[in-house]
Amino acid sequence: MQKTPLTSVEAVTDIDAPKDPNDPGTGGGMDAATYFSRKLAPKLGDCTSRIRSTANDWIQVSHLQATKTEQQPGDLLIHATKPDLQGFFEIIYRVRLKEQRARVTVFFYKLDGTQLEPATILPLLKAYKIGDFEEKLTQALLCGSE
């Protein structure tokens, strides 16, 4: 299945830290800059429970249903969908305290296995208020800085 990244926020303690090779925005064009961001944090913590709570709130407000949840300290994977949606959202959170790097990413997978067409991404971002969700995920991602 092809995944389409909708938003991704990385937190690092050193703004000059090398780019994460797993960053979905690596190699992207100008459009990628609107979907992916990097935040500087004085320190990072394991914010798994905050990310999960934020994701669950968004799932409820978006009238979605979590169909899969896997959680370990520093790692979270959630799939969410609803009957009339021809795909599902995937929320992934990873923190690597030794590397002083954390990332939360939202992907969309179409059920037919193809990637979203560029013209359909913006309506999906608006319909599911991904911009607002990104702001809340960013706050949760930076929980170790408080």
Give a verbal description of the structure:
- This protein has a single domain, classed as TATA-Binding Protein (2-Layer Sandwich).
- It is of the alpha+beta class.
- 27% of the residues lie in helices and 34% in strands.
- A six-stranded mixed β-sheet has the order 2-1-6-5-4-3.
Keywords:
34% strand; six-stranded mixed beta sheet; TATA-Binding Protein; 6 strands; 146 residues
Rounded to an integer, what's the Rg over CA atoms?
A: 15 Å
Q: How many H/I helical runs? A: 4
Q: What global shape is seen?
A: globular
Taking the sheet with the most strands, its summary is:
6 strands, mixed
Give the CATH topology. TATA-Binding Protein
List the strand order in the largest sheet.
2-1-6-5-4-3
CATH architecture level-2 label:
2-Layer Sandwich
Average pLDDT rating: 88
Low-confidence stretches: none
Short description:
With 146 residues, the protein is of the alpha+beta class. The chain contains four helices and six strands, in the order E-H-E-H-E-E-E-E-H-H.
